[in-house]
Input
Amino acid sequence: MPSYDALQRQDPAVFEAVRGEMLRQAEGVELIPSENYISAAVMETMASVFNNKYSEGYPGRRYYGGQQFTDQVEALAIERAKALFGAGHANVQPHAGAPANVATYFALLEPGDTVLGMDLSHGGHLTHGHPVTYITKIYNFVRYKMKDIETGEIDYDEMREVALREKPKILLAGFSAYPREIDYARMKAIAEEVGAYAVADMAHIAGLIAGRAIRNPFDDGFDVILTTTHKTLRGPRGGMILSREAGLGKRIDKSVFPGFQGGPIMQMIAAKAVAFGEALKPEFADYAQQIVRNARHMAEKFMQSGTRLITNGTDNHLLMIDCVQSWDLTGGQAEELFDRVGITLNKNVIADDPRKPLDPSGIRLGTPAVTTRGMGEAEMDTLVDFMLRAVAERGDEAALDALHEEVKTFCRQYPVPGIDAL
Ligand SMILES: *Cc1c(COP(=O)(O)O)cnc(C)c1O
Output
């Protein structure tokens, strides 16, 4: 990790915050399914002098001089991204997942066009047309849902009906709180029937797809995949847009720059190249598969204890728990209770939640970060035991203090990559 010597001398206040965050990450259990730990090599690259360079445009086609090395790292990031996902074209410049969504809409839609995406309370994401986002002033968003929240199966018949009625230009598969595999082939067939692009926002699951632990939507003919690079893909914070056929690439490139963004954040693009290089190694496939095994194991263990999981299990990296039915706690109370003992996760709406979005019934948790720390099935048992103890001991402050100490001791056995001994 960087030495932070200069920072410590120059700005003790910020240095203390950085140190505090390192300690928090090292001593706590991270179960937020969108979070992960980058490698020391990715971290070094993010802190590199590429920060100092303006490089509007694309490799070989820039608006400023001095681009030998920016061209080199961006070309590497593009080539590795294409190899990783079997894409015909890759744009690695989106600053994050939300801008990648917007740039994709700008590339494929005209104002007033319709997008058909997952209902937000059934696992869809804010960027798929939540009423609080400005994109809803430009495009029309309509929804499909799960048919059965016991199995999690999406209602593909309803999806087709809505598609035939609403004539969307994009049929969107993309989720931030959905624990099941998608029938991409069926979605692609519906998209073709109505003349829509089949687009997957795989922000959460890109690493699982790269490691072949779950299906790749391109294998079923999807047209575009967009993603973040910092969730299961374990790279720097950022976004990316891939298309199966190179032909769409020009429109996507123009939409990202100059259509939507300014200069690319080149130190992040260089760090994306490093992370994609890591993801191309066979060890990364082992990692991705272990994420899923750990999540399945955790789901089994919870269900054996009588905990109610939305869709009764998981096919990917995340679990949704109905806390009201399972433990007589709201999602917010459960989040707070686990935080109290050093276990971080987030409250979340569950499908058809009777409670309000800011005070929902559920929590969402996942295994990408703990798996990066080298934890396997045995450690998942320990984590579930910790959580069930916290639930049983709620209100007993001394018992929760003792449990918190136990969690810290446990965590010290599993170093966080990129954080040396503190
Ligand atoms: C996380 C996420 C995003 C947004 O990514 P940011 O980098 O936070 O902007 C978009 N779509 C989905 C499905 C996500 O899970």
